[in-house]
Specification:
This protein has about 425 residues and is mainly α. It folds into 2 domains: about 1-40 and about 95-225, no CATH class; about 230-414, no CATH class. The chain is built from 17 helices and 2 strands. The chain has helices at about 5-10, 25-40, 45-65, 70-85, 90-95, 100-115, 135-150, 155-170, 175-185, 195-220, 240-260, 285-305, 305-320, 345-365, 365-390, 395-405, 405-414, and strands at about 120-125, 125-130. A two-stranded antiparallel ribbon has the order 1-2. The longest helix has 28 residues, at about 195-220. The protein starts with a helix and ends with a helix.
């Protein structure tokens, strides 16, 4: 390639190919690779430099997003933790991980734009209502579309915007949702003011989602992606092993966020054996995860002070919603565990940690020990990330590191 026109001629957005295997359609991410190639060929430095710059910009935008819900200190702590978390090594150091960082950039931009679109309130005869900035709302939907064209999970930012609308803009609490549901079931309920206020914007969110999904089906076809037993052993396992394993993998991903000590570039080859019965002790991890999510959700909806509730709800939304496409809930995915897909969900995790840290800081006397613990955590994560980068130097080093952390994979390779 010698010119931008040559890039555009071969750009998949204009001449899409139908991939029977992965059904991936990421034309904007592909375009950035082609621009890299146009500038410096296959010299790897340029590709890695762009990835690092994208991660830096995402960290800055993440701080801006956190400041919408968290005080300055909490936002800063969350951003630092996000910047150095070892789980991001694959997404940032691995060149193909650019799909994660690029999609996250527009993902966060979309939410920030939606926040601006709903920031102004006016008072009328029926009380206060949101004065929608339709230009910013359309910008938010455009950025959501761009995020999806970088990676499919970018579309989930629209669901994040809906959560933001309901719990941040309208300030709805759990008991209000219960009352509304009871009214709908009994047929005696009326339309609450918050629902009438948000309806036009929610219509835009729903219409955009349906439009993007239909467009994707038109481009890539309606068939599900095709993967092998090697890619995702649980997908071809009988019940209840399939369901138990799928749910257990959720706790594995949560464990990688909590304790990213054992990282691996390839979690196939039996690195995680199937959960074949209800008596498997690993089911306790699944139960613990669901109990934790249920406890946090109940506390946020019905118990916590409004500000704490909003932080927890938005944090959980960031953890859960971007991760949904990778859960095997809607369709089988082509991997067992992929650390790169935790790039977006880790945003919610870091918000929860930062919020918990500042709350503890307000309640305890020995504040210096908390600060030491935080600094220690950041230092350990930074060192782990630095060391992990050397594992990604070439194919030999990354697979050697993988076999050291996963004895099952070493046996399979032998």
């Amino acid at each position: 390639m010698t010119s931008i026109s040559a890039v555009l001629i071969h750009f998949p957005l204009f001449f899409p190919h139908r991939s029977r295997v992965t059904k991936s359609y990421r034309p904007l991410c592909v375009l950035t690779f082609r621009l890299n190639y146009l500038l410096h060929g296959l010299e790897p430095l340029g590709y890695h430099l762009v990835n690092m710059l994208l991660h830096g910009v995402v960290c800055i935008l993440y701080y801006r997003m956190c400041s919408m819900f968290l005080p300055e200190l909490s936002s800063f702590v969350a951003s630092l933790l996000f910047a150095v978390h070892p789980i991001h090594t694959e997404a940032v150091t691995g060149v193909v991980g650019r799909a994660e960082t690029l999609s996250s950039l527009f993902f966060l931009g979309s939410l920030v734009a939606y926040s601006g679109a709903t920031a102004k309130q006016v008072r009328g005869a029926r009380g206060a209502r949101v004065a929608t900035d339709w230009r910013l709302l359309l910008l938010a939907m455009l950025l959501a579309t761009t995020a999806m064209l970088c990676k499919e999970q970018g579309i989930t930012v629209i669901a994040i915007c809906a959560v933001y609308e309901l719990f941040i803009v309208q300030k709805v609490r759990g008991w209000e949702l219960v009352q509304f549901g009871e009214g709908v079931v009994s047929g005696k309920g009326s339309v609450p003011p918050w629902l009438a206020d948000m309806a036009p914007r929610v219509f835009v969110l729903v219409a955009t989602t349906l439009g993007l999904m239909l467009a994707r089906v038109h481009v890539m076809g309606a068939q599900l992606p095709v993967f092998t037993r090697f890619d995702n052993p649980a997908s071809v396992a009988p019940s209840p092993s399939r369901q138990l394993t799928y749910n257990y993998l959720l706790s594995v991903n949560a464990g990688l966020l909590l304790l990213p000590s054992t990282l691996c570039c390839d979690w196939t080859m039996g690195t995680i054996p199937l959960v074949e019965s209800f008596t498997d002790v690993r089911n306790l991890g699944t139960v613990a995860l669901y109990l934790t999510l249920a406890k946090l959700s109940y506390h946020a909806l019905f118990v916590a002070h409004r500000h704490h509730a909003q932080v927890i709800i938005m944090s959980l939304a960031f953890v859960v919603l971007p991760f949904l496409p990778a859960t095997n809930l809607f369709f089988p995915v082509g991997f067992v565990v992929a650390e790169r897909v935790l790039y977006m969900p880790s945003m919610g995790f870091c918000m929860l940690v930062a919020h918990g840290f500042t709350n503890l800081l307000d309640r305890v006397q020995a504040k210096k020990y908390l600060w030491l613990a935080l600094l220690g955590l950041l230092a350990v994560h930074a060192v782990k990330t630095h060391v992990r980068n050397f594992d990604w130097r070439d194919e030999y080093t990354i697979f050697t590191a993988g076999t050291e952390g996963q004895p099952e994979e070493r046996q399979a390779l032998q």
